[in-house]
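If you are new to this repository, start here. Below is one unmodified record pulled from the training split, so you can see the exact layout before writing a loader.
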Amino acid sequence: MRCFPPRRIVCLTEETVETLYLLGEQDRIVGVSGYAVRPPEVRKEKPRISAFTSANVPKILDLKPDLVLTFSDLQADIAAELIRAGVAVHAFNQRDVPGIFAMIRTLGALVGASDKAGQLASNLERRLDKVASSVRGRAKLKVYFEEWDDPAISGIGWVSQLIEIAGGTDVFAALAQQDAAKDRIVAYEDVVAAAPDVILASWCGKKVVHDRIRQRPGWDAIPAVQADRIVEIKSPLILQPGPAALTDGLDAIVDALHGADHRADTAA
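And here is the target side for that same chain:
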């Protein structure tokens, strides 16, 4: 018999792991994505049973989960296999900041912690408002966010919105509305034409090589390259649509644009 709220949860992406820990509901987690690193103790406490687009389904079934949490169409095949095996699956698909807050509140409801989830979301919303207020009136720098290098892929929705909250202007804000990475591919010459003041790079788990960016044809004309304002933001901080992006990820953007000394005291 399945029990709800669920007692045994498998999380196939990291943002639901962090959210459950923040809600104090981590004891329900019995398996996590291999990319889960927040909070640090998750590495020691929870077995790893998946990558991002692949998972050890037999191992998941051995854990006897009463709920598996997945993300987007990229995990649709895994979700389908689990559903066929009789496992309850909830697939999230948040791609912007409002969607992150909705994920937090929905996950809270799923585990019987609606009040705690509402409080967490409200605290994070106030934090974003405080950051936006702290940078209001500062010069708005033009920002190019690079999610991948070959081909060059610009930032997704929540990244673009966080750049705006941090007081910057995403030079490819229109593309950020495209969910699929293939629809956010940009030509090198388009980045040159956009003339960003700051380049933020997070190559989806791969180390950013600054010289590779500087040496692209024509990029020596870009203000960010001339001023050596190329900043790497680690993927776990910004490329997961969850609490990390709204806290440490946003802080990293603020630091890159305005300097660490200008960061507001915005702890949630």
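Two things worth knowing about this chain: The chain has a mean pLDDT of 94. The radius of gyration is 19 Å.
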